Every structure is written in C-alpha cells, then in structure tokens.
Amino acid sequence: MSGGRRLYLDGVSVVFDGFRALNNLSLIVEPGELRSVIGPNGAGKTTMMDVITGKTRPTQGTVNFGEIDLTRMDEAGIANLGIGRKFQKPTMFDALTVFENMELALKAPRGPIACLRWKLTGGARAQIEQTLEEIGLQERAQDLAGILSHGQRQWLEIGMLLMQDPELLLVDEPVAGMTDAETEQTAALLVRIAGRRSVVVVEHDLEFVRALGRRVTVLCDGSVLSEGSIDHVQNDPRVIEVYLGR
Ligand code: ADP
Fold this sequence. Notes:
The chain has helices at 45-52, 75-80, 98-107, 112-120, 124-134, 150-162, 180-193, 206-212, 230-234, 237-244; strands at residues 7-16, 19-29, 34-38, 60-65, 68-69, 83-86, 168-172, 198-202, 216-220, 223-228.
C-alpha cells in the first residue's frame, strides 16, 4: 500500500501494581499488512491492543504510527487518526436494519479528512452497498440486525468499522463461537480488507490463523516469543513448550 503508515511499538512495557503485563514488547506492522497475534491467556494480547488505541498508557517505551507518537495521544485522538478496533462482542442496534446500522456508523463522529474523502467519493449509499458486498451481507441489507447469525453480526460490525475508513484495523478474536464455514469466510474477509489497510488480528484459533496465511507473532509473558509464518512458529520449540508444556 502506498503512503500508508507503519505501526511501531518500541520497547513497550506496561506495569500494573508491579506486574508486567507487557515487558519490553517491540513489534512492527507494515502498511497494508495482515498480522496475527497469538499467545496463551495472560500473554498480554489485550494490553497490547489497549496500548495501541490509547486505552492504556505504556509505563515505558513508545508507540508510533508513521511519524506520529501515539504514546502522547488520548483514545479519541488515536481513533481520529484512522485506527479502529473491533471488540469481541458486537455493538449494534438490533431493531435497525443492516443498512441503517451501516448508515449510523458512517455518520458517527469522524475526523475532517475522512469526512472530506466521503464527500468526494459520491456519498453514502454507494459506499454502504460496496462495503455490504465486501462483508458478504448485500442480500441482508433490509433485514433487522437482530435476526442475523452470530457470524453475520461479527461481519456487520467489521463493516461498520470500515465505514469509518480506518487505516489500521485491530480485531479481537473475531471467530470465537463461529461455525467452520463462518470461520473460513471471516479469514477470506480479513484477507480482502488488508492491503488497502493494515489489520492486526488477536486470535486463539490456530486453524484460523493458518487460513489467514500471513505473518504471525506469538506473545508470551508480555513480549514476543516467536515471529514468522504459521509453520515457523508452530515448529518453534519455545512455542510448543508454551502451548503444550504449561
Ligand atoms: P491476554 O489478552 O493475552 O489474555 P491480557 O493483556 O489481558 O492478556 O493480560 C496480561 C496480564 O496482565 C494478565 O496476567 C492480566 O491478569 C494482567 N492485567 C491485565 N489488565 C490488568 C489490570 N488492569 N490490572 C492488573 N492486571 C492486569
């Protein structure tokens, strides 16, 4: 992706009451990259997402997005830069249609640059329809969000985030509770989304991470234990010990 910004965590530590949730964590996500982050419970995955989005401030180290130092910014400022986050539990209005939820997401507070881009690209309807196609819900536009399946709700929420035109999308355990077919479709969706945007996916499901087929970072005890292809990290003796030996 040309002109995109690189995410760079440099030596980030987060200490809660003397406990190091992140311990000198360094990580680079290139513009347009799709990165999976895995690791056992308590590895620091959620804290890492919290630090990137400004929910938690690092005790040490810096987080940069391109030239911008996120460490000095608050959550709203970071969101306005084009960093979106999807939490595990979808938030939407069940009594509104899929299309109406997308419309609301489009009208949510946006930075001036995103607003200008939207005006220049010809308005809401085309953009919503295009995104519904991207998330595979074009046939469901007039259905109430409340009748969607669990998987479809996750996709709708990803679509709602896309309406904000994020440059970096952070996705927290998107396939928890999904059927195998939904999991496969979610992998294809995230692969489609990346490229034009950077995507960081935190996930437990190794088969899903394999389906994403991109670079994987394994976190353990708040820092990077291993990084590379899924085959590389799955064969790394340190990773095997952490997943099977504990
Ligand atoms: P993961 O998402 O990989 O399961 P977390 O980032 O949630 O890991 O947590 C990392 C460690 O930090 C855990 O041991 C957790 O108990 C601890 N932790 C997370 N948030 C807090 C907090 N607000 N106060 C104290 N400890 C915390």
